[in-house]
Amino acid sequence: xxxxxxxxxxxxxxxxxxxxxxxxxxxxxxxxxxxxxxxxxxxxxxxxxxxxxxxxxxxxxxxxxxxxxxxxxxxxxxxxxxxxxxxxxxxxxxxxxxxxxxxxxxxxxxxxxxxxxxxxxxxxxxxxxxxxxxxxxxxxxxxxxxxxxxxxxxxxxxxxxxxxxxxxxxxxxxxxxxxxxxxxxxxxxxxxxxxxxxxxxxxxxxxxxxxxxxxxxxxxxxxxxxxxxxxxxxxxxxxxxxxxxx
Length: 246
Description:
mainly alpha; Helix Hairpins; 4-stranded mixed beta sheet; 5 helices; 76% helix
């Protein structure tokens, strides 16, 4: 003998199905919040920008170290020039004077070369500082967008979760009114086929969207009001109401 349930109890399944459909929709909305996808994009961009900052900072540190070495070399040459000038002023030997003058000329050339290198490296340092500052500004703006997007995502998720909690509570209230065997069958069919109850409206099953054929409609008309029937197309419990067109 098949399962039987009062028509009014079977009608409760339509409310349950509405709640379950709503819960599925809310779960889908929670998974597909636009800000979630945007945050994933921003995470990739953030990684790229952070790498750029690290690379630019490394290049700047290398350039500053190079500038320090050149400045040190210039200082050494200038110290030697000052030393040789002092020796030149105090020397009375023509041979020593000639040697010192030659060395001073060579040191002057070396200093000129180093100062040219120093200018080039200084320009490089300045360019790298500007580039690093620009990337850091981009990263700051990027992180501000991440913070704003995270806040928007959390707000949207909170609203959906609150809606879901209310819907789940309303569903539980209706489920408590459904006879245990009927509820168990509903849950079984919903888990297996995706829909637990289908409203037969105007001869059309709401779960499948398909009109019952003449044979199936004849079987439905012949069934007792408390017989629990399954939709031939969706396998959901077929709920009959005054709108069923029987």
